[in-house]
Amino acid sequence: MAYIPPHKRSSNEAERPFPTPDKLAPLFKRNVNVRSSKSNDNWTGKVVWADQAISKWCALGLDDDTQFPSSVNLELISLETIEHKIGEKRLALMNSGLATEGSEVKWDLPKSPWVYIAENVLEDLIASFDNMRKEMESPKLEELKPNLIARVGKVLFHRNPSVNLESLRENLTTKMLKNWRRSFYTNVPVSYTEKIVNKVVPNIGVDFESEKDIYLVKLADSTTPDSTLLCKCSVKADGKLQLYKVELNQMRNMVMDISIPNKNLDLRLMLNLKRVVTTQTDDETQSIRDLVDAAIADPDVKGGLRWPLEKTSSGKYNVVGAWHVRAKVYKNQSLRFKVRHADRFDFGTSIGEASWEISLRLKKLGSKLKEEKVDVDSVSEMLEENMKFIYDNFLSCESFLT
């Protein structure tokens, strides 16, 4: 049998069709980890953290240092892509009650879940935005744009080899997990995305904004190893790429991971700083354009792009990844959210993945935080409204991890 390069091997996920236009018309206490549980869970590019960044995890329905209910266990999760990258399985909190009760187990809580999320996020959100504001005021060679993002998926814990899994299950508490390294898995079932666009969208007061079909070329800079350039491209009539924006990998200022054991989906809130490159030398600009112009769109390869031999580097830049992203974008006055299919390929590891993802940008809340004098009560109320909107509409899903 002839050898098939890794990025040309078939992927069932990649074959999933994007929905057609007619289809698309309990208490918790904070478990605090400041700059400790950070994980490089993005593709082909290092995660950049601000100097005073905050990273936390909490579990809905539990007090700090409280044992989980007997129905909630820490289970090994089999994910082919992750196992190829790191050689081991991840762990996730799973609720056996969801097998019989569907996409949500009803818990009797003294406060609504979104109220507790808002109460526990508020202080760190305002502090992180204040730190971000100082970063934005310092002289930079790029345009800085703050983004407050909510993502749905599953919190995954990185297994501690020194901990016996069976003994952990017998006495599973939040205290045991709060210092474990973690990542956030955003690949959701296609049936969930179809439910969102066909059943949720018509009932939540959002309008269709646009449909996007773009490619991302990721470049490493040999002079700044911690940075990755993201070259956003559209496709011209002749099939060649048209470069329209160059960004640095985003800087994270705050990450709050929230495990929600009474549902099949968890929540991640992120405050990021988008860094749009505005100043480049002529040589840098030409090198980037040379690499973009050399790319060949090919639906049969993972990431959707390939390059001729010896055309993956130019000047100080080297191609390290490719994405093909198709998305439907919806919006209302408070937020903007995407339902997207992302086909990725990492040139360093020769690993590709196609995934369905949903993310929400809380634009009105972000604008409120940018005001010179922040009205804390107003921010709290708006944050609570956003969390209720997400909890009610975006966290119910059939079981999809095993």
Automatic annotation (TrEMBL):
Residues 1-21 are annotated as: Disordered. Residues 42-394 form the DUF7903 domain. Pfam families: DUF7903. InterPro entries: DUF7903. This is DUF7903 domain-containing protein. It comes from Rosa chinensis.
